Amino acid sequence: MSIFQIAWKSLSQRSLASFLTGLSVALGVMLMVAVMILYGVIASTFQQSSIGYDLVVGPKGSPLQLVLSSIYRVSPPIENLPFRFYKDLQKDPRVEQAIPIALGDTTEEGSFPIVGTVPEYFSIPFANNREFAVRGTFLRKPFDAVIGAKVAATNGWKEGSQFRMIHGGADTGHVHDEKFTVVGILAPTGTPNDRSVFVNLDGFYQIQGHDKPFDEAIKREREFYGLAPLDPEVLAEEVRKLEKRYGGHDHHNHAPGEEHFHDVPMIQKEVTAILVTTKTLMAAGLMEGEFKKGFKAQATNPIRPMNQLLTDILGNIRVLLMVLTGLIIVVSGVGIFVSIYSSLQERRREIAIMRALGARRETIFGIIITESLLLCLGGGVAGLILGHLLVLAAAPVVTARTGILINGFAFQAMEWLLLPALAILGVIVGYIPAVSAYRTDVASNLNPS
Amino acid sequence: MSLILNQIRKAYVTPTGAEQVILDIPAFSLDQGEQVALVGTSGSGKTTLLNVAAGITTPDSGTVTVGGVEITRMLEPVRDRFRSERIGYVFQTFNLLGAFTALENVLLGMSFSSQPANRHLAIELLGRVGLGDRLHYRPSQLSVGQQQRVSVARALAKTPRLLLADEPTANVDGPNQQAILELMQTTCRENNVTLLLVTHTSEVASQFSRVERLANFNQAATSTSTPYSMGVN
């Protein structure tokens, strides 16, 4: 019989105690695995959804807020940029594509964020090599809307469904009269796109309040470009000229909900951010540096602030959780130590018999260490399986609530370290009992006490 | 394989701190293939003598030579290996492991030598002690006599050159007692194995051509009683 078989037999003899100590290890490992997988999913989700763009350009302010608002849509936008700025950026020879987005409104039903954008938004992969897929069509007409999978599931919207939006978020309570029509439903992406509603930017500007009054638009644009404010008379003259050119427009001449279209002058348009892909990575770096020097806007690599967030905040939470679950495993290890050590007293005779049969002290030492290893590694393997099963069971709930797609079978690199770490723990907690067994006197323990 | 005990002395310290000499044997020996019954009263040091002969207990002084090899000079791991390969031991209290079946107990006896455990031999020996249909019974499922028979099979399974048996028939009924005795004697005879068997039963001792009374050669023996009247060679 091998040392393994003998150790297994000894554990089987104390099956309940062995099961419970192994289970305690399994539960600790299960929690640790769940933490690792969920953190991995969160990290990859944050990085994946922003990987399609090289730069996010927005008003000066916090880069993290810019990324959170424009990519993840979980933070209010900083401010707006003039539409002219977007057009200028588009002409930059280093830029491959510049996608404007306008944020701030939400759906009346479900409070999902509205993203005013251009049809080209869907031509850029939402993650590495992952293209958008849609049931229906992408944006074509001004009042078309494409909705994310979670929006469709939550609101029960289908192609042809119509909806209205609340201005500036649900707090203001002002519901725009204009209605958008759903023309496409995106396949699930596991990104914030799933809970976003995309409307054509042309239609977005048609909504009352989204085109700034001429005087305010002139003031904001001059302020943005760092130009001195105009004298009141000059400003009034400028406004008059624009009104004459564009003829003015009054939304109140239309019936509520009526779809109508008119050309909005560039000066009245603003965008919240611009998602940029550059022709080369070096160009992205150069542009980011140039924007830092200027005072108008900022450009940031969308991955960097998220990595900082993950490292500085989520990373610390993860470390805390890992330490806690690690402590659970260590406590389980102490349980193994207590279990084996206390059982030794009643096993002295058993050990003495094996020694009398010719087992060397080292063999006895090996049997006890093997028992400890079996409990640690057996519990560890069970914990790995349970951890993945836990994530599998939780995945539908998490996906339904957050839109984040979770793969319960995803294997984190750190999981490879778990079993060697548990093996070391097994040797450590088994060492003292093994030494005690090693020292068992044969003659005095051979006869029943 | 011969057994020679020379100037063996073994003493224990009592709880009162006094030294109690258990063995004080100037000389005692068995020739290769010889079968000897050792008799003595309770507490006379029979089990200690077997433990010393097996290398389980180290004497305070003196030498133990088994098959020409002085085991008292061996390092402990070497002595353990020597015992696992050359010496069989049938314990008075059977000393079976409760978690193991009868077959596993026998296999365990073979597991600590350099040779791989011979499952076929283990099954055959259990059959010869009448336990062929109890291979997978645990000790708690066997009677006292059956447990002792497993213990005998375990000692014989590793084909020892010296077999030490501590009252192997003490808990076995008449017919089984005879069967066990015959099995040990026959196996030892066939394989030229030296047998030293401790007993307090005259029926058992009478089946040996050489019977030694411990009190006769152990100067530390305190026994004054002589339970058997038999010829001592």
From TrEMBL, chain B:
It comes from the Bacteria. SUPFAM superfamilies: P-loop containing nucleoside triphosphate hydrolases. Keywords: ATP-binding, Hydrolase, Lipoprotein, Nucleotide-binding, Transport. One of its GO terms (cellular component) is plasma membrane. Residues 8-233 form the ABC transporter domain. Its EC number is 3.6.3.-. The keyword Nucleotide-binding applies. InterPro entries: AAA+_ATPase, ABC_transporter-like_ATP-bd, ABC_transporter-like_CS, ABC_transpr_LolD-like, MacB-like_ATP-bd, P-loop_NTPase. It is an enzyme of class 3 (hydrolase). One of its GO terms (molecular function) is transmembrane transporter activity. The keyword ATP-binding applies. This is Lipoprotein-releasing system ATP-binding protein LolD. It comes from Planctopirus ephydatiae. The lineage of its organism: Bacteria, Pseudomonadati, Planctomycetota, Planctomycetia, Planctomycetales.
